[in-house]
Amino acid sequence: MRSYLIPLVGAAVAAGVVASAGPGQDRSPWPQFRGPDGQGHVAGAVPHEWSEGKNVAWKTPLAGKGWSSPVIAGGKVWVTTAVPAAGGGHSLRVVGLDLQSGAVRHDVEVFAVAELVPLHARNTPASPTPAVVGGRVIASFGSDGVGCVDAATGKVVWRTAAFKVNYETGPGSSPVPYKDRVILPCDGADAQFVVALDAATGAVAWKTDRPAAAKRAPNERRAFSTPLVITVGGRDQVVIPGAHCVYSYDPDTGAELWRVAYTGFSNVPRPVFAHGLVYVSSGYFSHELTAIRPDGRGDVTDTHVAWRYKKGVPNVPSPIVVVDRLVMVSDQGVATCLDARTGTPKWTERLPGSYTASPLARGDSVYAFADDGKAVIFRAADEYVELGRNQLAGRIHATPAGVGDSLIVRTDAALYRLIGAKSR
């Protein structure tokens, strides 16, 4: 979502948190939720000041409803949306806009549905963020289906509606790229599993059940987190929080590697990984952040938890690690900075508004976007230092994307390209 910058690139490289494509992932500028590394880091000199009349390269209206974050492929920005159709149904669409001009190049119906599934007040039918794999844009609409659009032509390549689960409040988990596949969790009230799909055909490469929540009440089996692919000891893992348990799998086969139990469900934040630790948010009832050493096998709840932290943990926005500091912004706007290695708190600060979008970072500057369109920029340091505030019209629930010197920001009514001073 973000120069008042201290040159920390060398330190960030040492900490393993500079923006770069994760293991096995597409080399597009912004191929998935939270960017190339999946952890919210922006490499370019993105702007730190903007408004409706300042540093806006273009603003393009978007029809329908959707909180999917922008991804970038083929010189285009891609989002999903749900547009009302005649007779009370909805058209679930993938929209591609020219990165330079903001002109709509593709507006493609992937699915037509007669009736929307039940939705939480903060959710939409088009909340999962697409993933880019090999010039293809793969979009999930939850139980309404998963579809693939060619990034060059905008034509639908494949569709599948094979993964129907009852989310009760609408979809949330985003597919993530891995090699020539996407990996997608499906954690509903009635079934919990994760699938890997061939990006070219939509065929199932593997499917693995997630049984830890099976004995809970149906509404406590749901989860909405997005996977994170990491490399530990030269071997890739995909870490996927679920209801009452986080699992790690072999992304090539779907075999479970390890798991850690906690109390919590309906969790949304994506994990982050730094300093040899995976940081996971547990969800409702507990709101706990757990730091896990991901080198174990089997149930490692009693052996591989490095620390836990319970105060101000978000249920929706994902945390971010900037060098040796972990920063999180709660749904209610409480920003917290911890020592990423030990969990020792550095500071807390009340930010204006409520928050759904996940923070981004450029260098040591953290960009937090509030639901009311306000953005607060502050430094990830041992003390809270605010660097600026900006405002756009409309509401922001989608996490922005960063490419070059531009931020791509989605509101409830439009998509913006915000530019730095060098582009004007």
From TrEMBL:
Which chain positions lie within coiled-coil regions? none
Query: Record's Gene3D superfamilies?
Result: 2.40.10.480, YVTN repeat-like/Quinoprotein amine dehydrogenase (2.130.10.10)
Tell me where the transmembrane regions lie. Answer: none
Q: State which Enzyme Commission number(s) the record gives.
A: 2.7.11.1
Judging by the UniProt lineage, the source's domain of life is: Bacteria
In this chain the Pyrrolo-quinoline quinone repeat domain maps to 125-283, 322-378
Instruction: Tell me which positions the record assigns to the signal sequence.
Output: 1-19
Presence of keyword Signal = yes
Note the SUPFAM superfamilies from the entry: Quinoprotein alcohol dehydrogenase-like (SSF50998)
Q: Which GO terms describe its molecular function?
A: protein serine/threonine kinase activity
Q: Keywords, A to Z?
A: Kinase, Signal, Transferase
* Enzyme class, UniProt record, top EC level: transferase
UniProt-listed InterPro entries: PQQ_b-propeller_rpt, PQQ_rpt_dom, Quinoprotein_ADH-like_sf, WD40/YVTN_repeat-like_dom_sf
Give a single Pfam family match. PQQ_2
DNA-binding recorded as keyword: no
Q: Report what the protein is called.
A: Serine/threonine-protein kinase AfsK
Q: What is the lineage of its organism?
A: Bacteria, Pseudomonadati, Planctomycetota, Planctomycetia, Gemmatales
Q: Which gene encodes it?
A: afsK_4
